Amino acid sequence: MSVNENMVSDIVKEVMARIGMSEASTTPMRGIFNDMNEAIAAAKKAQQVVKKMTMDQREKIISNIRRKAIENAEVMARMAVEETGMGNVGHKILKNRLVAEKTPGTEDITTTAWSGDRGLTLVEMGPFGVIGAITPCTNPTETVLCNSIGMLAGGNTVVFNPHPAAVKCSNFAVNLINEASLEAGGPVNVACSMAKPTMESSAILMKHKDIPLIAATGGPGVVTAVLSSGKRGIGAGAGNPPALVDETADIQKAARDIVNGCTFDNNLPCIAEKEVVAVNSICDRLMKYMIEEQGCYLASAEVQKKLVDCVLTPKGLNRKCVGRDAKTLLHMVGVEVPSNIRCIIFEGEKEHPLISEELMMPILGIVRVKDFEEGVETAVWLEHGNRHSAHIHSKNIDNITAYAKAIDTAILVKNAPSYAAIGFGGEGFCTFTIASRTGEGLTSASTFTKRRRCTMSDSLCIR
Ligand code: NAD
Fold it and tell me: Which residue range forms the structural domain that includes residue 285?
């Protein structure tokens, strides 16, 4: 990186100190509250202003959010890694920039019209009001920025209950959004959050009469909680994306793409390759390229056993392992490797716990199958019906089509790393809230609006 490391570290310390002071309520961060009811009331007041704004005014605020997010991309990346202990600073900078540049704004809000002998009918996208948003620790600042841009473009304001393990960096992003709004002539509190988010504050958010819609980004627990709240919920839940490789693929490129996608931000993105399914005829070659060209470490049965014991506790995933790099994970089980090792691979059955569980760390199990048909069956099993993301490396259009139909996921990436699906090296917009469970798919501003029909009978048709 060209930026002076000491300088950045000083900035981060300064920002952290500032946030510490805000907790002592000397210089409050904008939009951060100690009481969830107060946060909702403040966001409601701000929404009264936002809903009267022109689209152009909304867009001015959004442009300013984008600018400030780019300026602060590195600070936010460092804060997130420091606070959560997870992920990779360089990759998080890229993710913050991607959100700033490719999250859709007001251009996503469109009108449908029917004009004819009996008049004119429009369907317009209107705001819900104040949206509740629950965000993860894996992409904390990215999700806050992405949700805020989309929700504000739709004419809403938002109240976050961020992950407690990522509250400082999430709230830094909330403050940045409010500063951007004020600078652009908008109100404060377009985004609000809790100084200390808890399950209780989350419950208040889910039940509050002024919250008509909740967007939950996280694991199965939070999505189920939101869908049980009695409100409309957008559920962006867990995945376990398999990458299927058949005999027609460019095997060398598949090895590169899969390892690049798998190791991006230490495998934290929910869309990242979590395991590989490879047909027998190319499996050895794929693994050879991964080891010889892509910095993969081949784990022995003994190391796999140690990794299982370290990574998976009786209570579930060991949070100390999530989002750690391959060298650190291997060090934790007593194996020292050089820094160019970026992924741990091994061959195993689909039921192997390091394969069937969503790990969110660069451990990539490879399941060997006899042919493509068995590969599809295995990948569908591994995706566990999440309907989230899947990947394929193949040049056979019939195979790609058959896989797409069978796996039925919100995202299917063909012949590229997983991150191509969110606009990084692929076409299309960016999002960090992929509504796998409730079916909206990749969310954007239009997802956060309600359709309203406006009919004029027998007039205003000028054809
Ligand atoms: P997590 O489920 O631990 O936490 C997510 C958020 O939900 C946090 O704010 C947490 O405090 C809250 N939460 C958790 N359980 C809750 C409950 N029962 N009631 C109310 N709130 C609850 O997830 P995480 O570790 O932060 O993120 C990783 C998980 O999220 C992975 O499973 C990943 O696949 C998923 N994820 C999905 C998407 C998507 O767009 N579909 C995006 C990012 C992460």
Answer: 242-426
